[in-house]
Write a structure and sequence with these properties.
It contains 15 helices and 28 strands. By secondary structure, it is of the alpha/beta class. The chain has two domains: 321 residues, Purple Acid Phosphatase, chain A, domain 2 (4-Layer Sandwich), CATH 3.60.21.10; 187 residues, Alpha-Beta Complex (5'-nucleotidase,  domain 2). It has a six-stranded mixed beta sheet with strand order 4-3-2-1-14-15, with helices on one face. Strands 7-8-10-11-13-12 form a six-stranded mixed beta sheet, covered by helices on one side. It is globular and about 80 Å long.
């Protein structure tokens, strides 16, 4: 009996040692290819130039899978989140074609992005059913419990792979507060620090599928910390498949070039970022690329053999023999998958029928480009704020630039053009404030950083700033009087505290007009042609 007890003790010790050191070794080297996308934002259909779209994406991914399988390797397909919001045909159908299309492609897992919360939680639950693959996040809590599955386990060629989901903790301020009542977005790195040691005991490889953003050298600015910061803080993550910042992570300077991400040319050589032993990747946005990372795992080590960003029918402008500009793909054109087209065509037709309706026209272009509208006044920002102010009968209006998602061309405008600019379905609200309260609010708005979605676009007010504070503020040429009352027009997102604005939805002077922002713009266009000169940015903000 004593011998048996000793044997059992030895066996127990061996089991504990095995658990502490992770899963058993694999037999020989394993070839593993990680495919990844992120920030799809409703682009289930190709654009007017024939770029991207799920049908061509499926053909490309199927081809890579077949190639890898033929060479004895294995694949895993991941997404960094934000399938929702961006194209009206998708937005008006709750991204049903997008999730069902991704299901047909065969995604293995996806991180929940902040835009997955642009609509109420029951819509997200419905989308999860359409997807049929895990949509994961470890740092989203409700009533003290994780609201969604934190990670998913996979096996490929004897390799055990853990995929951990994480979502930016900026989500709460970037989403309509009504959609996340009682929901808590904890710091992703804290959750990773708890889970990664546990996952290392279960898996040969630990991957984080994140929607947090890649900021060069960890300089996230006004944003919550992203992938670089987490990789430096949390040891043990082999790879981060990211999203949110919507840039191609291609560290060109590691390859002898002096340029970084924004200089990437489709089809050129590329290297992921590497921080604290962790590879970090991101494939720009909209399905423009499929990222491909070819690894070899042997003797407990994961080695990156090759990395590339595969363009999905991206095109460049070239001059033809006749001197006219034409569009040509950077790489050989990818044919669209017939089965995918058959799935998506009805959704595209249904969406276009409602959207290709002429609603008005403009004598010039309105600039709502992300790179401009988030750092300076633009005619699009002034236009939207002016329309809000007029509809609400307000003295002034403030529009958060993160709610402006596109530009508008000159000429005829459709309902689709409107929804591309304002896809969120926010309500127009107004609040009656004393002059003192208004000055406090304007000071808060003036502190919103350039480059963030909080950056304000104004109408009806002229501000002179000094040292980041409002020195003078005038409405219709007169200084704001502390003793008078003023009506401020904003959207329901801002009123609820979105983007870090002071909450006004519980103010006694708060009124929800019941009008959706896009419909307010549509009504304006049905009655007025846009004269772009009327909405010149001018000198609404003067900085000293």
């Amino acid at each position: 009996m004593r011998i048996l007890n000793i044997s059992l003790a030895v066996l127990a010790a061996a089991v504990l040692a095995s658990c502490a050191s992770g899963p058993s070794p694999t037999q020989g080297p394993v070839q593993l290819t990680i495919l990844h996308t992120n920030d799809h934002h409703g682009r289930f259909w190709k654009n007017n130039d024939g770029e991207y779209g799920l049908a061509a994406r499926k053909t490309l991914i199927d081809a890579v899978r077949a190639e890898v399988k033929a060479s004895g390797g294995h694949t895993l397909l991941l997404d960094g989140g934000d399938v929702n919001t961006g194209i009206p045909e998708s937005d008006t159908q709750d991204a049903e074609p997008d999730f069902k299309g991704m299901r047909m492609i065969g995604y293995d897992a996806m991180a929940l992005g902040n835009h997955e919360f642009d609509k109420p939680l029951p819509v997200l639950a419905k989308q999860m059913q359409w997807a049929g693959f895990p949509m994961i996040s470890a740092n989203i809590y409700k009533d003290g419990q994780r609201l969604y599955k934190p990670y998913e386990m996979f096996e490929r060629g004897g390799l055990k792979i853990a995929v951990l989901g994480l979502t930016t903790d900026d989500t709460k301020k970037m989403t309509d507060p009504a959609n996340t009542v009682g929901v808590e977005f904890r710091k992703p790195a804290d959750e990773a620090a708890k889970l990664v040691p546990e996952l290392r005991k279960k898996a040969h490889i630990v991957i984080a599928a994140t929607h947090m953003g890649h900021y060069n050298n960890g300089k996230s600015g006004v944003n919550a910390p992203g992938d670089v910061e987490m990789a430096r803080e949390v040891k043990g993550i082999d790879m981060i498949v990211g999203g949110h910042s919507q840039n191609p992570v291609c560290m060109l300077e590691q390859m002898g070039a002096s340029r970084r991400n924004d200089a990437y040319v489709p089809g050129s050589a590329c290297a992921p970022d590497k921080q604290n032993g962790t590879w970090i990747v991101q494939a720009h946005e909209w399905g423009k690329y499929v990222g491909r990372a070819d690894f070899e795992y042997a003797n407990g080590e994961l080695k990156l053999v090759k990395y590339s960003l595969l363009p999905v029918n991206l095109k460049r402008t070239v001059k033809g023999a006749d001197g006219k500009d034409t569009k040509q793909t950077y790489m050989p054109e990818i044919k669209e998958d017939a089965a995918m087209l058959a799935l998506l065509q009805p959704y595209q037709e249904k969406g276009r029928a409602a959207l290709d309706v002429l609603v008005g026209e403009s004598d010039g272009a309105l600039d709502g480009s992300r790179e401009n509208v988030r750092k300076q006044p633009t005619n699009m920002g002034v236009f939207i704020a002016s329309v809000m102010m007029q509809k609400a009968g307000a003295d002034l209006a403030i529009m958060n630039s993160g709610g402006i998602r596109d530009s508008m061309p000159a000429g005829k405008l459709t309902y689709k053009d409107i929804l591309k600019v304002q896809p969120f379905g926010n309500m127009l609200v107004h609040v009656t404030l004393s002059g003192t309260e208004l000055m406090n609010y304007l000071n808060a708005a003036a502190k919103m950083s350039a480059g963030s979605g909080a950056f304000p676009q104004f109408a009806g007010v002229r501000l002179e700033l000094e040292g980041g504070a409002v020195k003078t503020a005038t409405i219709k040429g007169a200084p704001i009087d502390p003793a008078k009352s003023y009506r401020l027009a904003i959207n329901s997102f801002q009123a609820g505290g979105g983007d870090g604005y002071p909450k006004l939805s519980d103010h006694p002077g708060y009124v929800n007009t019941g009008f959706v922002d896009a419909d307010v713009m549509r009504e304006y266009l049905s009655k007025n042609s846009i004269r772009v000169s009327n909405f010149a940015p001018g000198d609404a903000i003067v900085r000293r």
